[in-house]
Amino acid sequence: MDERKILDLIEQKKYIELKKELAQMNEVDVAEILDPLDIHTTLVIFRMLPKDLAVEVFAHFSPEQQRDIINTITDKELKYIVEELFFDDMIDLIEEMPANLVKKILVNAKEEERKLINQFLKYPPNSAGSLMTIEYVDLKKDMTVKDALDHIKETGLDKETVYTCYVTGENRKLEGIVSLRKLVISDEKLLIKDIMNEDFIYVNTHDDQETVASVFKRYGFLALPVVDKEHRFTGIITVDDIMDVIDQETTEDFQKMAAMSPSEEAYLDTGVFTLAKHRIIWLLVLMVSATFTGGIIKRFEDVLQSVVVLTAFIPMLMDTGGNSGSQSSTLVIRGLALGEISLSDSWKVIWKEFRISIIVGIALAAANFVRIMIFDTVGIWVALTVSITLLVTVVISKIVGGILPMIAKRVNIDPAIMAGPLITTIVDALSLIVYFTIASLLLHI
C-alpha cells in the first residue's frame, strides 16, 4: 500500500475508505504511518482499527506515542490493550513509561499479571530475565503426541510462538524441548518423552543480553528458553526481541568507538544539552591526553629548531599512525564482539598485525620517500628520516591498535572504548617520540 495514498485519505478525512485500507495492512506499516502524526489525528484513526490490529499497532508505536495514547484513551480501552498485549511487549511498555502511567497500566491489568509484572521488573536491566516472555507452549512428558497437538490448538493462539514447545517436570524443571515439526510428523500415539530433545541450549535469567544475543547468532534460534539458578523454567526470549538488542548493542559500540557516552534515545529525539553532555566528557579526557603530545614536541624543540622542515611532516605521520591503529582496533573489536577472536588469541593477533604492518609500512614508506624526493626540496637524509619513521609508526600503530582491545577485554572493560580517538591519541605520542629519536640519530642533531 502506498503511504502517500494513506496520508492523502487522512488529509481528506475519507475515513470509511481509510479504515478498509488500513485493515488490510501489516501492523508495522500502520504504526510507521501513524507514529509521526499528532496525537489527535492518531487517536481518531487508532480507534477505527479492528481491535486485534489496534493492539498490534500499539505495540509498535514509539514510547512517546504510546504515552500520549495512554494519557488520552479511556480506562476501558486501556484495559483491552493491556489484556491483549503479549507479556514481553507489556514489560517493554512499562519500562518506558513514567510512574503515573505505570500505575494506570497496572490498575487495568489482571491481578495475576500484576504479580508477574512486578516479578519481571525485579530482574536486572539488560538481563535475560528482563527480555523474556511467558507466552510459550509447555507440555508434559507423559502426554501423547495427539494430546500435545490438541493442547497447541487450544492454547497456541495466545502464545508468542508455537514452533518450539517446552517440556517441564516437577517444580517447573525444564526437561526437554520438542519442535512443532517433530510433533506433526510423529506417530500420534508416541509419548512426548520418547521424541523430546533433552540436549538443549538455554540461558540464565541473570545472563547479560549481549551473551543472549551471541547465543542466538551462534545457533540461529527463533526462541531460547530461560531458566533460573535452580534450573526452573521461567520463560523464553524470541528472535524479534533479540534483534532489538543486537541493534542496541551495535549502536552502543559505535558510540563508544566515536568517544561518546552511549545513549538509547534516537538522535532527533535527544536534547542538545544531553548530546553535548555525552560528548564533552570524552573530549575533555582526550584533550588532556593530547597535552602529552605538546610535551613531547617541547622536549625535542632543539631538534625542530635545527631542522625546521621536519615540522611539515608531523601531521602526515600522526594521521597515518592514527588511521593505521584505527583499522586494526576496528577489526579486532568487531572480532571480539562476534566471538571470532578470544583472549587466548592475543599472540596470534600481535603476530598477524605485525606481518600486516611490515607489508603496509614498507609500501607507504617507499611511496613517501619517492614523493618527498620528487616534490619536496629536502635532502635525502630528511626523506629517509620521515620514511623510516613512517614504517616504524605503522608497525607500532597496528600492534597497539590490535592489542589494546584485547587488554580492555582482559580487565573487563568494553573493547569498543579502545577505538579511534583513544588509539589516535596514544599513537600520536608514540609516533612523535619515534620521529624525533630517528631524526636525532640520522641528522646528528
From TrEMBL:
This is Magnesium transporter MgtE. Keywords: CBS domain, Cell membrane, Magnesium, Membrane, Metal-binding, Transmembrane, Transmembrane helix, Transport. PANTHER family: MAGNESIUM TRANSPORTER MGTE. It comes from Tissierella simiarum. InterPro entries: CBS_dom, Mg_transptr_MgtE_intracell_dom, MgtE_transporter, SLC41_membr_dom. Homodimer. The gene is mgtE. Residues 196-252 form the CBS domain. Acts as a magnesium transporter. It is a multi-pass membrane protein. It is found in: Cell membrane. Belongs to the SLC41A transporter family. Its main location: membrane. The chain crosses the membrane at residues 280-297, 354-374, 380-404, 416-443. NCBIfam families: mgtE (TIGR00400). Pfam families: CBS (PF00571), MgtE (PF01769), MgtE_N (PF03448).
